[in-house]
Amino acid sequence: MNQRPIRVLAVEDSENDARLAMRLLRRAGFAPDFHRVQDLAALQSALVQGPWDAVISDFSMPGFSGLEALTTFRASGLDIPFIFVSGTIGEETAVVAMKAGANDYVMKDNMSRLAPVLERELVQAARRAAHREAEAELRRFEAQLGEAQKMESLGTLAGGIAHDFNNILGAILGNVELARGELEADHPALTMLGEIQKAGLRARDLVRQILTFSRRQPQQLRNVALRPIVDETYGLLRVTLPAGAELELSLSDEPLHVDGDATQLQQVLMNLSTNAWHALRGEVGKIVIGLEAVHLDAATARALSGLVAGPYAHLWVSDTGMGMDAATRERIFEPFFTTKPTGQGTGLGLSVVHGIVVAHQGSIAVDSAPGQGCTFHLYLPAVNPPLPSMSIERMSDAPSLGHGEHVIYLDDDETVVLVVVRLLERAGYRCSGFTEAAAALAALGDAPDAVDLFVTDYNMPVRSGLDVAREIASLRPGLPVVISSGLITDELREQATAAGVRAVLEKEDTFRDLTALVGRLLAAAR
């Protein structure tokens, strides 16, 4: 017969009485491990040492009463059975003891009650513990829900900001295109315009990531070189980190490529480097960003969250900061877990890093110990570099020149409208620009046959681009329509096709690709 282990603290001046109580518990199926105390100091010490499953106390002892023992027990905050076992307790005293917090009392001339009473109170204590755990879990879920709602609101806000920033960015890139078209091929300003365009394209990718985050769309992975990402991150960090944080690179000369999202990989390095800086706690220290090629064997790969053997790019970020203990290392990738003071961290940084690495089919590991710094290791599957692009210029890539065809362009941002109108007019088209859908549709309704193509933004107040496309279909069936959007989803493509839209164009690529797209659509419509 398997006996139930139980640790009992006996407050009893008689060793024999304590052993008798334990003998009765063993007969009832318990396997008690007990410790006896008989004064206040010993009781206080024992309560701290614990843990205990139950306390059994005599009521009357020389120089020490059961009620004092109960008061001391209650002050400890333990929620376990406290049962009086006494031969002198009367009914009125028993009532006082129960009101003071005792769970029950057993008379020494009726010790057969001890095991059933203890069993009942242990069950009740277990229920209370489960209830407390459920309430704590509920509070954790409520906190996580609050954080999730906050992140959802942040995502909505980010989406709105990104949409407006898209228009600003579009105006910058569009004017760069216009300026380049006005300059000779050897003009020195072309180099500076090229740098503006390069920065604008990087910002375009950042906007796309913000929109992806705000609408929970999957990222697009492309063949990217890691060295430029590390170099660019290093440049950003050098002007960000304080003077006391020494930043070093340890990079392999071997070119390393992965299928990834360059902006998200840079976010991973920025997050890890920022955490490394925080780990220095304002003191002088070193942060190292490293990159090398490794080949993982089967055993090592399996240990890294189930990777497969093969070639990998090994990225790492190390610091000489305070380090982490084992308990912290086990939880660092949990959402909302943070070791920072309240208000100084969301606990989402490393969770986001982990999610990005996993989405890249990789793995992340950490080496750390208290006072010995920390190193985060990232392993991403290595791929071959992309094949070099063919230098042959294709006819479809050449600028498409118009012959006075009439294009209506609709966007709620006036600057974007002005730039697009200038681009299309420079390409030989006649373009009418509008910032309000009602005015653009009225112009089409007044002379439907005088319009050859209609381009509309998707995200606008009052009417969306899809709404406009459906109204165009009733005003001028068969008119080619293009929708420009900052984030193109499969759902948008399907709805656009159903509305008769001929093409959906990335908003950020409008100034680069629109004239060629207009030319192709008009040629197909002839």
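The above is record 1. Record 2 follows with the same two-line structure.
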Amino acid sequence: MKSFYVTTPIYYANSLPHMGHLYTTVVADCLTRYKRQRGYETCFLTGTDEHGLNIARAAARNTRTPKEQVDYIVGEMKEMFAAFGLDPEHGGYDIFMRTSEPFHYEGASAFWRRVAGGQTPKGRDNIYKDFYEGWFCAPCGTFKTDEELAPAADDREAPKCLIHETPVDRVSEEGYFFRLSDYDEALLDLYESRPDFIRPEARRNEIISFVRGGLQDTSISRLRSSVGWAIPVPDDSSHTVYIWFDALINYVTALGWGSEARRAVVGPEMFEKFWPGLHLIGKDILRQHAALWPAMLMAAGVELPRAVVAHGMWLDQTGRKGSKTLGNALELSTLRRYYQPDAVRYFLLREMAFGQDCKVDYEVILERANSDLASGLGNLVSRTLTMIKRYCDGVVPSPEISEGRRLQAKRVGVGSDAQDLASTLELVRDQFVQGVEEFAFHRALETVWGMIARVDKFISDAKPWELAKSEEQRETLGAVLYRAAETLRWMAVMLYSFMPESARAIWRQLGQAEGIERLDPTQLQWGGLTQGTRIGEVSPIFPRIDKAKIMAEIEKEIAQRDEKASAGAQPAGADAAPSGTDAEHPGTHTTQAAVPGAETATEVEREVPPVRGATEAEAVPGAPSAPTPAQPEGVATYITIDDFAKVEMRVGEILTAERVPKADRLLRFTVDVGEEQPRQILAGIAQYYEPEKLIGRKIAVVSNLQPRKLRGFESQGMVLAASVGDEGRPVLATFTEDVPNGARLK
């Protein structure tokens, strides 16, 4: 049997879980369930990194021992995972890894000795002892270069960390170093020979540039007198293993590498069966996983991972990274209280284009839940199965229309067979599978929801409630309802990995007894729903959320938290942390700031480019626009060439397109205009274009207008279109020749 091993980062146990933890774990869970459906034997690892100075300090702040601190955080983490269906009881993770486990001490020590006993590709010792003197930032957990510090006002003061804006300490101590600099050529050879080792492509290019710029040797120990809550360095009890070196090794020690005790628990073949694995990470810890970790494995003679796949960051609607300090973080407790777990899972996987940053707030999640789930999938399930209950006595009808009744069916627009629908479903299935395999979860879901809209329209056009009034149309009625129900069967199988509880509910309501968990979506065939099957009890899958009521309650909670924070109280206990960031250790993993020059979560926030562009004000009725001076009738208004030169127009390619909830005229695009990140652009053309047919089209974009927010979304450009006819029908400007994305229009 084929095997699949996927890992999240092990999350740093100095603060409470946040949205960054949730997202990565949901992605890993989705992939695991999908692979199980495909027939793979799977292993899914998540867990906590439990060593280091910041753990000890967090424990002291909370009047706990370090062990009590990490035990508390682990309890909170497991509770959060269970609430969103990510724990073993709900079919989630297989291993919750803790680096304080004795078997990890054994395995990490064996790994250290293996590395220390070998030589680099350039024939020098992998690990050596030396003195290091420099400015050390305790919250970052790393030494700082001059470029990473704000100069002191005078010689009597210490410089400040640019990230935390707090003074750093001058540290001089003996330590062990890993000779990372000798692995530059080996790493570049790896990236060249295995182009898919780092994904997406932009992150691969980033790492190649980083390695080519020159690697520095990395400190991998601290004096025990400085950091005592850590694994002792083998054969030198005066030093402890630095947290990132310890933490990365968890991916192999969890499977039994280097520990007989662990192998006795998980089985002697566990490591050989599942390694190498796929590492899912946030982009802020890419360098540690894509450069440092492979070099460590090369040094230890252990096979390299299958791939390192990095996702983007969650931002607020202004483009800032979520942070409790800024007051813009989404609380997981609030999400748990007001949203169905599967609605949150759907939003996370549907909204973020994997690898790119994504904006989020409570209202956007609510609108997705109501438009896509309650009014979309949920409504299709309810109306289809309710009509089967009402018109077919709760039994799946025959899909056939006899030859003598085909003319009547044709008169109401229903074909004699379901071949067109079946062929479309097969295409949807193939595009869905491709999307999941390419980590394009949003695209996979867009494909499914396009099919939901099509079948919903098919029902509305056929009008089963009218067909039920005519005995001559009974066969047509049955065929319409069968086709809708069979489509739902396909939808349930495909959506299981994304929304497992909701897919199971649809499955039960369809009257299906076979376990959906092992049904391979690639093997779906038309006609699997058996005529005569009695459907289950019909109940709402996604009840509609009262937006005004729920948003008022959420806003009240936020105001109360802000009031407590302004009064000096901890917003969620002393363990609270920014969303997507650990309180004293930025990023989602202890290795976040380990490699010299590595990005921290705060630095990633600074990298987000200033948003540019504008939207069509006319897309939303009543949207204000700038006043224009009146001109005499019939007199042309001229601008100078200098005025025209101020307008920046570029070629863009539409990557995704979708309707904006509750906005009849608005479409929302992501558009590649040749920049590092695609732009989000809104356009008032929804009445004239189907969004799925616009994907891949080259368009002209005005790229330097002031941003503007419509329906809660910020538009970062304007799409150019002709206005045709008396009704002003928009026709998108496009190109007849192949032009590169980002090319200027002059």
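Confidence is low (pLDDT under 50) at residues 569-574, 576-637.
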